[in-house]
Design a protein that fits this description.
The protein is mainly beta. It has two domains: 5-147, Mu homology domain, subdomain B (Immunoglobulin-like); 149-427, Pectate Lyase C-like, CATH 2.160.20. The chain is built from two helices and 34 strands. It has helices at residues 165-175, 417-420, and strands at 5-10, 12-14, 26-33, 42-51, 61-68, 74-79, 84-87, 91-98, 108-113, 121-131, 141-148, 150-154, 182-186, 190-192, 206-209, 224-227, 237-239, 245-248, 250-253, 260-262, 275-280, 283-284, 301-304, 308-313, 316-317, 325-329, 332-340, 356-358, 361-369, 377-379, 383-389, 394-397, 402-404, 425-427. The protein has a 15-stranded mixed beta sheet that branches. Strands 2, 5, 7, 8, 10 and 11 form a six-stranded mixed beta sheet that branches. Helix 1 links the parallel strand 12 and strand 13. The chain is elongated, with a radius of gyration of 27 Å. It starts with a strand and ends in a 10-residue tail after the last strand. The model is unreliable at 1-21 and 391-433 (pLDDT under 50).
Length: 437
């Protein structure tokens, strides 16, 4: 998982009246994880004090940090070299000395367990810093925060009822309204076979997580499979949310239509513009080990809304009946570190049309693309700008009634599409565009 770091600047209160000339200029920084965590997760932050570069007073100064701990947090501990911490039922107080002519204190480690409630929420630990000399920064508080997911657990492979994927999507659609981040989790490895189309995902700030760490190798099996073998003509997962959805670590295969549909509604509520949706660490159109094709009947991923900003990362999108990814309407598509037309160990699992077909918006495409029936990347008249990077140098296309093939694969031993179609631009002619049928 990619983690963001928050840096908060604290300021201080005065412990004792001293001559105005004996002042200090000291800040306190706090670093911790900004991304939401599952309920019950262990959370760590680091606090450290430092003198401002403009501080001319280099005297020793005592520091005292008081953290008021909400009752929903457990196992709260403060520790660090030369820090002395005491804990009561409502607060943890830590003190140290900043030696003369020393700019930085030693780090203070703060650790605790997030609330275990499945309702999730944002929880704040107010912190105050006091110094033994007056500080030129009069504000007194800062915040250590933890954001836990509102969780909907899939505990059964049944198509309906409590604990089913269908029920989890419905509950998330009802309860995920941007007030808290949400998570659909799975109790363990499972194959889910819907017998009719699943409800479209309209929830906000939702992660549907198959249980793999972000960035897991594409040679590792995906534990959760969503199979359309019994769903007749249906799409697999339809993302129709205007406020952010991520699919991670899933296998989606065997649906009669598209494996995944990405379509941000038009228009989203103001003041939002295009909103990103993400597919990462997934297998689309293969089995859970990416050893053999289990085609979706149309495309692996179909992008169908002009406001969609789609990020497709570290995924295998192979074996589908038509193109691996088809863009019919979008704002921007970014494809990186994907295998398109290949499976585990880079074995051929080509898509039946092109690897990626772009007929709208802009696209930046890189990764390993080979063995697809038509083009690696086909660019239609509706695309505004497409850049591909596969053999070490980028190629940009601004099509005017023409279609482009891709630069191939990072691996020279594979047969890249530019070997099949040596001319980067081919005339479209009339009728069905090459690269997507």
């Amino acid at each position: 998982m990619t983690l963001k770091t928050i840096s908060l600047v604290l300021t201080v209160v005065v412990l004792a009246a001293v001559p105005a000339s004996a002042t200090v200029s000291i800040y306190l920084s706090a670093q911790g994880f900004a991304q939401p965590v599952p309920p019950g997760s262990h959370v760590a932050w680091t606090l450290s004090a430092f003198r401002s570069a403009q501080d001319t007073n280099t005297e020793a100064v005592d520091l005292l940090i008081t953290m008021t701990v909400p009752s929903v947090l457990s196992n709260f501990i403060g520790s660090g070299d030369r820090w002395n911490c005491t804990t009561s039922s409502t607060a943890t107080v830590c003190g140290t000395s900043l030696a003369a002519a020393t700019r930085f204190s030693t780090p203070l480690q703060v650790e605790f367990d997030a609330p275990t409630t499945a309702d999730g929420g944002r929880f704040v630990i107010p912190a105050t810093l006091a110094t033994s000399l007056p500080n030129t920064h009069p504000e007194i508080s800062a915040k250590i925060e933890v954001n836990t997911y509102r969780t909907f657990a899939v505990t059964t492979t049944d198509d309906f009822g409590a604990g089913s994927l269908r029920e989890a999507i419905g509950r998330a659609n009802d309860r995920c309204d941007r007030t808290v981040d949400c998570l659909i989790s799975f109790a363990g490895p499972m194959t889910i076979e819907p017998r009719s189309p699943l409800p479209a995902v309209t929830a906000c700030d939702l992660l549907i997580d198959g249980g793999l760490a972000q960035g897991t190798s594409q040679d590792i099996e995906r534990p959760v499979e969503i199979s359309g073998a019994k769903a007749n003509f249906a799409n697999g997962l339809e993302i129709r949310s205007w406020c952010g959805v991520t699919l991670r670590g899933l296998t989606v295969n065997g649906f009669g239509a598209n494996g995944v549909v990405l379509a941000v509604p038009t228009p989203p509520p103001p003041p939002l513009g295009p909103v990103s949706v993400t597919v990462e660490d997934c297998f689309i159109g293969t089995d859970t080990k990416a050893l053999e094709a289990r085609p979706n009947g149309m495309r692996g991923i179909s992008i169908e809304s002009p406001l969609t900003v789609a990020w497709v990362r570290n995924s295998t999108i192979s074996g589908n009946h038509y193109s691996g990814i088809a863009v019919w309407a979008s704002d921007l598509l970014n494809v990186s570190r994907c295998r398109i037309g290949l499976g585990r160990d880079l074995r051929p699992l080509g898509n039946g049309a092109s690897g990626v077909f772009v007929n709208a918006g802009a696209a930046d495409i890189s990764g390993q693309i080979a063995y697809n029936h038509d083009f690696g990347v086909a660019v239609g008249r509706g695309a505004s700008h497409v850049t591909t990077l596969g053999t070490g140098r980028p190629h940009a296309y601004r099509p005017r009634g023409a279609y482009a093939s891709c630069t191939g694969s990072y691996r020279r031993r594979l047969r890249p599409c530019r070997e099949r179609h040596p001319h980067p631009l081919r005339s479209a002619g009339r009728g069905t565009p090459p690269g997507e049928v």
